[in-house]
Amino acid sequence: MKSNGKTAPSVKGKRGVARTAKKELVTVIGPLNASSLKNVLWDTLNDIRSNQIQANRGDAIASQAREILRTIKTQLQVSSAAKRGVPKDIIEFSER
């Protein structure tokens, strides 16, 4: 069976750009870490300022970032209450 000729090309590397059905550009982000999260938030803020994206889309991105940080804070509180060390994934998130 032949594959559909309308498939999108693969995105290689840490950051790539893919097109959606509405011909909007979507940035593909590599592994999540504190630095990439900060960069996405700054890019979003600059895009809002330059009218590249609407404010409600930026608000959705910021809400997701807050949830990620809230989850990390909860993990730190649980490990502290259990008198355990900081989980390795949190250290990797912050230091990568």
How would you describe what is shown here?
By secondary structure, this protein is mainly alpha-helical. The protein has a domain at 32-95. The chain contains three helices and two strands; from the N terminus they run E-E-H-H-H. The chain has helices at 34-49, 55-81, 88-95, and strands at 16-19, 25-28. A two-stranded antiparallel sheet has the order 1-2. Helix 1 runs antiparallel to helix 2 (55-81). The N and C termini lie far apart (43 Å).
Helix content: 40-55%
Beta percentage is 5-15%
What is the tally of helical segments?
3
Distance from N terminus to C terminus (CA atoms, Å) equals 43 Å
Give me the side-by-side strand order of the main sheet: 1-2
Order of helices and strands: EEHHH
The average pLDDT value, as a whole number, equals 81
Described by strand count, sense and barrel closure, the largest sheet is: 2 strands, antiparallel
Radius of gyration: 18 Å
| Oligomer classification | single chain
Secondary structural class: mainly alpha
